[in-house]
Amino acid sequence: MITFMNNSDSEEEPCNERTSLMSAESPPVPSYQDGLQASEAGEAQAHRKRRAGSSRGPNNTAGGETSASGVPVRESALENEEEELTLKYGAKHVIMLFVPVTLCMIVVVATIKSVRFYTEKNGQLIYTPFSEDTPSVGQRLLNSVLNTIIMISVIIVMTVFLVLLYKYRCYKFIHGWLILSSLMLLFLFTYIYLGEVLKTYNVAMDYPTLFIVIWNFGAVGMICIHWKGPLQLQQAYLIMISALMALVFIKYLPEWSAWVILGAISIYDLMAVLCPKGPLRMLVETAQERNEPIFPALIYSSAMMWTVGMAKPDTAARGPSQQTWDAAEDGREHLRSPSHAESQMSETRSPVPTRPVTSLEELEEEERGVKLGLGDFIFYSVLVGKAAATASGDWNTTLACFVAILIGLCLTLLLLAVFKKALPALPISITFGLIFYFSTDNLVRPFMDTLASHQLYI
Amino acid sequence: AFFWLLSLLAASLLWSVSVQLSGREDAALLLLGAAAAVLLQELCRFACFKLLKKADEGLATLSEDGRSPLSLRQMAYVSGLSFGIISGVFSIANILADSAGPGTVGIHGDSPYYFITSAFLTMALVLLHTFWGVIFFDACERRRAGGLGLVVGGHLLTSGLTFLNPWYEASLGPIFILTLGTGLWAFGTAGGSFRNVLKCLSCK
């Protein structure tokens, strides 16, 4: 889901709110605790991330509603201005989202093309038990569909679990879950990734150096994502963990299953965010009702309204900060807009009610941002990475998918500006990406190859 | 870029269908496919123009002083540039990837200058697309069919010249002359003139 606040989804959550561009923070799934394989845990994490991926559109509206309740007149008068501002900022938001999505895809594609580990087939995740090594096409198709059904049901179960936890205020559990999953991602997957990269380039590294590097990387990452840190560092970490997650998916999902899963997940995302009883929508609405930020570890935010903060279940402390926010809102009517209100809300939520005054000041100066769930990052990268890995040639297919995804993101952001509520970020982009992948691979490639072999240009 | 990709898709579809139907691949079909690709590209450039025009009007109505923040010339330049970039990248990415790998150029009797001429051709094509974008949008704006015809004709000519390809003097030379000419024309269309250049160079 895409919301005006971009929340990155925690990759680790098995619950997948993934694709919503919401700042939905999906609680990380402590898959690791179960002692599953790393890949499985990664799956769970991915699920979680996906869930977190919901965009926070509803947050915007909710924020707008809460703030506007007192001053309906001003609201209507400012509507046009808001619309204009929204559209003007829309372009900025698009650019703010293009850069991280592009960076994530570049990292994934570069890794896929250079490190051979991620294209070797070394087994499958427990979520996709059916193998695709069957002799007949029908059997293979059936297996991939079954794999998809299992995966999607796991995602649904995790998402519902997360939403229930959130509803019944089991914040500690959710936080523990998120922390555990990001821990695993930051340490274990980074270790594997680094090991493979070093192997590919034949660089020797001793264990003490490795330990120091990974320890620093992981510790700073944990602090940045779950607590406070410079915005760009936090964004960089979120991009890196999305890329790592996407690489795990690319490695462990069998081919046809991957494509069917991508398609099914867009549909799921569409339903989960837009249907009234959808889990992601409920999560966003609950978060908005309570005026709490969605967990920051699950959402990529493009503007620094707040630093990621642990949401302490301290409603009393949050009260005064909430009031200061509303006061600020009233005081600055000219800046009132849904996204603004939302970002304000996210502001209050994230920094945990520890520093209401300072955050208020920060808010005054910060711009509004758009939030994109980390699950969206992951799936975009999975699509482009799979295109890079399995397309029989080439860069053309990868580029075509890349452009398609970006255009889909543009369109979704446009819709977000029009509808002003949480929207699923996956469907349009993934649809375009899939169409372009299959058509480029099968139709365009022979054409371009023939042209290039005669050095003809069109 | 998206529009160019759409046109490429449509052209490839056409070509694949024609190959399937005729049952054999030969140069004539390729020529047809290339011509179709050129025409479809120009069509998509027109579609891009229409869309951008509409977006421009929308922006103008929304802005405070009734004018849109982007001029049509900027849009023309950007659109032409993006067409050029995606066309160039599609033409050269695979060649670059192969050039990093092991192999000998021209071992089967093709020209050994394949890579460098491809590089020059791609550069010319990118520049040409940019110029064509500017000229095309301007011609559409002022409803002059001459400009449109010249752009389409120029594109077809360029593509046709590349069919002469191992004979590089005949294809590269004219293409570069064409690029230069189109560039000057686009410069003139965008409002530049000799005086402007002088002013710019003397930093007044």
Automatic annotation (TrEMBL), chain A:
It is an enzyme of class 3 (hydrolase). GO terms for biological process: amyloid-beta formation; calcium ion homeostasis; intracellular signal transduction; membrane protein ectodomain proteolysis; Notch signaling pathway; protein processing. Its main location: endoplasmic reticulum. Residues 1-76, 314-363 are annotated as: Disordered. Residues 56-69, 340-351 have a biased composition (Polar residues). Its EC number is 3.4.23.-. Gene3D superfamilies: Presenilin. It is found in: Endoplasmic reticulum membrane; Golgi apparatus membrane. It is a multi-pass membrane protein. Probable subunit of the gamma-secretase complex, an endoprotease complex that catalyzes the intramembrane cleavage of integral membrane proteins such as Notch receptors. Probable catalytic subunit of the gamma-secretase complex, an endoprotease complex that catalyzes the intramembrane cleavage of integral membrane proteins such as Notch receptors and APP (amyloid-beta precursor protein). Requires the other members of the gamma-secretase complex to have a protease activity. May play a role in intracellular signaling and gene expression or in linking chromatin to the nuclear membrane. May function in the cytoplasmic partitioning of proteins. The PAL motif is required for normal active site conformation. Belongs to the peptidase A22A family. Homodimer. This is Presenilin. It comes from Mohoua ochrocephala. The gene is Psen2.
Automatic annotation (TrEMBL), chain B:
Residues 1-19 form the signal peptide. GO terms for cellular component: gamma-secretase complex. Keywords: Membrane, Notch signaling pathway, Signal, Transmembrane, Transmembrane helix. It is found in: Membrane. The keyword Membrane applies. InterPro entries: Aph-1. The chain crosses the membrane at residues 28-48, 75-93, 113-136, 148-168, 174-194. It holds the Pfam family Aph-1. The keyword Membrane applies. One of its GO terms (biological process) is Notch signaling pathway. It is a multi-pass membrane protein. Component of the gamma-secretase complex. Belongs to the APH-1 family. Potential subunit of the gamma-secretase complex, an endoprotease complex that catalyzes the intramembrane cleavage of integral proteins such as Notch receptors. This is Gamma-secretase subunit APH-1. It comes from Mohoua ochrocephala.
